[in-house]
Sequence to fold (429 residues):
Amino acid sequence: MSRNKPLLFEVYPGLKEKIPWVPILSNVPTSVERLRQVEKYLGIEGGELWIKRDDKDYHIYGGNKLRKFEFIFGRILKKKRKGVITIGGYGSNHCLACAIISKLFNLKCELFFFHQPLTWHVQQSLLLYNYFKAKLHFNKGILGVAFNAIVFKIFHPKNYAMLPGGSLFFGIGSPLGIIGFINAAIELKQQIDSGIIEEPDVIFVAAGTCGTAAGLIAGFKLLGLKTRVYAVAVSMDWIVNASIIMKNANKALKYLRRKDKTIPDIHIDEDDFELIEGYLGSEYGVKTKRGQFAVDKVVELEGEEKGFKLETTYTGKAMAAVFDFLKSQENKNKKVLFWNTYNSNDLSKYLRETKMDFSKLPKKFHKFYQEKTFQCWQITDCPENIRNNCPAYLNSEYRFWKITECKLDPKKSQKAIEYLTEVITLEES
Ligand SMILES: Cc1ncc(COP(=O)(O)O)c(C=O)c1O
Fold:
């Protein structure tokens, strides 16, 4: 169903025509669902655990970026830009979403990457960026990324430069992405008002560039909700910290108020949210044991049946924090909502079309396919007809050695299991 305006313009009609917006989301409001099996596993007494299914907010590729893009691409189209330049890790969900939505609007997409640990997810993502017609730029070091992206922008001024994650960068940039999550807060408020869910005590959300968390924090305060946002840090502390969350939230609120003076003059300070640290591991993108455990457990108990996924860079770490929170005696009666920011649509049909042929990528990316990270089907030389029907094939996050229905000679699959157990390292924290 296509929408002709965001909820934000319904609540604040004065913002209409003053803020750019283009409809993208094809499935909103996203549903809220109770995770009763996980509740049982955690031994919750009197409390509740719910999930907000933003993973299905857009039919090709869901997740948090699409909410931000309704406002950001609104501006890109209004300014008649020819393309978009953005930055992310090699396996960036933000870059993938940007490639898909740029293609939707016939815009060029130029992606500049920084390092993240090499995983099967990274290998898949690079193939998908290329499949959705984005141009991949190889860079050396974090400064190299910024330098190359800036130089590119100077020589290609008709491209719109979107900051990493569609958020602000140290308080600089446009707050439009964050406004996507003020809009999302209104959506949740309507679900509360119509009795679909009671007002949660706490919302857990992964914080990478802090735009999602900041938008929710600002939105809830603006709407007078008591729900407290727990932002789980999944990037280094110079990127995720209380000051950055406040800057993101306050700049978005100030921007809205500048456009419409009827919007209450509120300010976000440190007491308005919780920043949860200790789940990142040694760096952005590494798999931690707690994160992988939470992914496996939730997918096994509810995800497979309800059709959602978690992954180990963002949502697995945020879910690990939910587990610890709800296991503590003092929180057992709390109503918790987990905001699922990761896509759960199946991308395997696109991946199959790439035929895993990395030779189509720029040469500098080929090395990512020639080093370590083999998949079980590569090790066992699994025939195509078996591989195509196997749940382990093209499955980036769930550990395929848990799959018991392998159709291959058990000796061969055992060999793969042993190899993969050795290669895949999980960090303790
Ligand atoms: C799946 C997922 N969850 C959470 C986030 C973090 O969102 P934000 O950058 O707004 O903090 C990202 C960002 O890329 C993401 O891909």
Notes: The chain has three domains: 7-64+174-339, 67-166, 374-423. Residues 7-64+174-339 form a domain with the Rossmann fold fold (CATH 3.40.50.1100).
